[in-house]
Amino acid sequence: MVKLEEKSRDNSIMGMNIKKLRQYFFESDVQDILNVPITGFSGKDELIWSRDGSGLFTVKSAYHLALSHQDIPSTSSVTNSRKFWNKVWHSKAPPKIKHFIWRVVSHTLPVASSLFSRHIIGSPLCSFCKSNSETVHHALLGCSRLKKVWKSSRFVDLYLKFKHLDITDFLLSSFEVLDKEYVGILFCFLWALWNNRNNYLHHKHAIPVNDTFDWSMNYFFQYVDAQQKLQQNRVLAQNLNRESTSASGSYLQVFTDAAIDVRGQKHSYGIVVADESGAVKAGVAKPCIGNIPAVMAEAKAIYHAIFWVQLLHLPVDTLKTDCKTIVDKLNHCNWNASPLDDVLVGIKNLLSFSPNLRIEHVYRESNQLAHWVAKFGLGLDNEVVWNGSLPFI
């Protein structure tokens, strides 16, 4: 049997041996193999349900799978565009409003036409104008009751120019003419239109027409201001915690991160050791072959960091990562059948040999060094280890 994987010092699988893969397989098969997440730790091969992160079958994930195979109205392939969704997810709008926009684009809002097709209500007509089928486009752009609302807003030119487009193409056009701040306000405005529709249907009250835009803008800026204050408090709390720990005695801390090069079919781990003042003492940049999910790469970076620290007997009491998902799963020990959980079990096993080592979540701005080292590792062919300051600073 041909061994296609490469082992690291801890005898775990680093990644695939790309030379052997290309020796025995066609290039198209090589690309598929490199997309398989390999753990290489304590797990065994078993069938899992790939549509849920737990690896277990759920009715909810099966429903979404069935729904994804239905024909959903769309005039454009933009819904599959990474650039389009980056605009949505990276906007400054609150998370629940981003989720609302996702529902708008995926046509999953409970408009009358959708409820009628599911035999929930008896008519697909709009409850306001009574003359057109209520689609997502009609509920947010097409209904006659919305004209005054749009025309009293700062989006009137956008509305008049693009209201005839499909809702997805309308959003795409707005990305081209609005800055990032106004995109967030537009999302809040659309959400306000939908809430007004629901509040009037069910409670017979809504925001006055002339106040809808101002309400949306105030809602947006209140959220942005709250996020800025929260961020300032987080940084202050981390600085106070660092000063408190520093006063209690010297220690070392480890920061980890991972980077992924999808096109190059590789990923990399960044590991940085720093003292209580933040001065870098040592580090590792470790490139690996294979295109694995980001959370899997983050987990493997933590595993290799712990193993490396234990191998060198470094006096480390804190390991920090900006992946909150991993920290939460390690704290709750809610293992399932997924490849990620296989790695997390390996991390827990290593921690049993270092009972005083804590794994903590930090925000990205406090983990920049490990992030840079992980990015640096993508350009390497082999692992690089160093003492002292970072080699590229």
TrEMBL record:
Domain Reverse transcriptase zinc-binding: 57-150
Signal peptide: none
SUPFAM superfamilies: Ribonuclease H-like
Coiled-coil segments: none
InterPro entries in the cross-refs: RNase_H-like_dom_plant, RNase_H-like_EbsB-rel, RNaseH-like_sf, RNaseH_domain, RNaseH_sf, RVT-Znf
GO molecular function: nucleic acid binding; RNA-DNA hybrid ribonuclease activity
Stretches assigned to the RNase H type-1 domain: 256-376
A Pfam entry, by short name: zf-RVT
CDD domains: RNase_H_like
Full protein name: Uncharacterized protein
Organism, as annotated: Cannabis sativa
